[in-house]
Automatic annotation (TrEMBL):
Protein's name in the database: Carbohydrate ABC transporter permease
InterPro entries given in the database record: MetI-like, MetI-like_sf
Family matches, as PROSITE patterns: ABC_TM1
Keywords: Cell membrane, Membrane, Transmembrane, Transmembrane helix, Transport
Family the UniProt entry places it in: Belongs to the binding-protein-dependent transport system permease family.
Principal location class: membrane
Residues of the ABC transmembrane type-1 domain: 73-276
Taxonomic source organism: Paenibacillus aestuarii
């Protein structure tokens, strides 16, 4: 079929608008990366620039200059891996149990979980609960309060309800128990959903900040985001004119450059992992969201 001139102009206009929107979206990310590699003295002279004349790793050297950074990376990495695995196990197991018709008291459990979505107890009750359980200044204080999500449980429940009952009955005829059905049948068929939810859990654990401020007092257990915030505060204080006057100006790192480098460092692991889970992302977010 021949394309008319009006259709060609319309397509060209669409491509131009989409390209413009893409550039507007990518420009802030490009700016963050470029400023993080910009020489501090050049940034102080020209704060708004896209192509610096002098590149520098000063901001990254400042971030990696302390042993606490590596410890914080280890804590956040442990939370992102171990916490995500625990969250996926609890979420999928709870969703599978709630999807079974033979579960006694299922309505009560569903209402109880739904209430957690509607009513948030607040910071003080959560703090008192963590303190009463003896989890203060422990890595479990960063995992257990965020172990599962009621919304993800309902999505996974709807997904398991769409799986034919005959599949479970066939597995039980072959000798599988309820745990065996869950491990050998349900988990393999829900890989896409687990990958999508796992990405969200990993991002949440990696970006743990407020819980780290509330529950963690030890320097060795501080998550990465808490440490980066402390370093930003330190850099801001060092950039104060009253403080900088006592120091060599060439050795003062602008806090804005530190912020950009901190954003790059904290975002890089998730950016690296996301392409490997992208093929599961759309499909995983759709399962269980529409019940046919």
């Amino acid at each position: 079929m021949r394309t008319s001139l009006a259709s060609k102009l319309f397509n060209a206009l669409n491509y131009a608008m989409l390209t413009l929107f893409a550039l507007v979206t990518l420009l802030p990310f490009i700016y963050v990366v470029i400023i993080s590699f910009t020489d501090p003295s050049e940034y102080l002279a020209k704060p708004l620039l896209l192509i610096p004349e002098h590149w520098s790793l000063t901001a990254y050297k400042y971030i990696f200059s302390t042993d606490a950074f590596l410890k914080a990376m280890g804590v956040s990495g442990f939370l992102a891996v171990f916490g995500t695995v625990c969250s996926l196990i609890v979420t999928s197991a709870l969703a599978y149990v709630l999807s079974r018709k033979r579960l006694k008291g299922k309505k009560f459990f569903l209402i109880t979980i739904l209430l957690t979505m509607l009513f948030n107890p607040g910071m003080i009750p959560n703090y008192l609960l963590v303190d009463s359980l003896g989890l203060m200044d422990s890595v479990w204080a960063l995992i257990l309060p965020a172990l599962t999500s009621a919304w993800y449980v309902f999505l996974m429940r709807n997904f398991y309800q769409e799986i034919p009952d005959e599949l479970e009955e066939a597995a039980k005829i072959d000798g599988c128990s309820d745990v065996g059905v869950f491990i050998r049948i349900m988990l393999p068929v829900s890989v896409s959903a687990l990958a999508a939810f796992g990405l969200f859990y990993a991002v949440a654990y990696w970006n743990t900040y407020f819980s780290g401020v509330l529950y963690i007092n030890s320097d060795a257990l501080r998550p990465l985001q808490v440490l980066l915030q402390m370093m930003l505060i330190s850099a801001t204080q060092m950039a104060d004119p009253s403080v900088a006057a006592m120091l060599d100006s060439e050795r003062t790192v602008p806090p804005e450059v530190i912020k950009m480098a901190a954003v790059v460092v904290s975002s890089l692991p998730i950016v690296i992992v996301y392409p490997f889970l992208q093929k599961y992302f759309v499909k995983g977010m759709m399962v269980g969201s529409v019940k046919g």
